[in-house]
Amino acid sequence: MDLESVRRYLETGGYEEDKNASTIEKMPLRFFERFILQGLHIDLIEPGRIVCSMKVPPRLLNGGNFLHGGATATLVDLVGSAAICTAGAAGTGVSVEINVSYLDAAFADEEIEIEARILRVGKAVGVASVELRNKRTGKLIAQGRHTKYLAISSKM
């Protein structure tokens, strides 16, 4: 692919003409989070741990027709952040690091389980481990770790 083709692909989201430009700008705030989380169900929530599940919706598939890596990383981000809150953190803070190892594919309408466990929540930093599994087979789809800086309240 030549450089200009790469530029056009990135600037138009993969479409030659951005017919959705005006529609995209009218999306509600935090639309992306709702887009990813719609259909997610909490199966268990306790201090330091969240287990949830969802059927992989077609809207989250990539060009190979399996769960998009960006959607997986966003689930690590959002569910990991929520788990940090269950451990008593006042807020979710800001991401310092997210890493994801992609180990298997999840396809449309497959039920996946997302489990987030707290590794550490201190005064300044929270760390969560998040695993995505095929709910039927138990096979590990992705494993991630999310580190967040938690705002320290001033004593002034």
Automatic annotation (TrEMBL):
Keywords (A to Z) from UniProt: Hydrolase
Keyword Transmembrane helix: no
Domain annotation Thioesterase: ranges: 65-139
Pfam families: 4HBT
Record Gene3D superfamilies: Hotdog Thioesterase (3.10.129.10)
One GO MF term: fatty acyl-CoA hydrolase activity
InterPro entries: ACOT13 (IPR039298), HotDog_dom_sf (IPR029069), PAAI_dom (IPR003736), Thioestr_dom (IPR006683)
Family that this chain belongs to: Belongs to the thioesterase PaaI family.
Protein name: Thioesterase domain-containing protein
Source species of the chain: Salix udensis
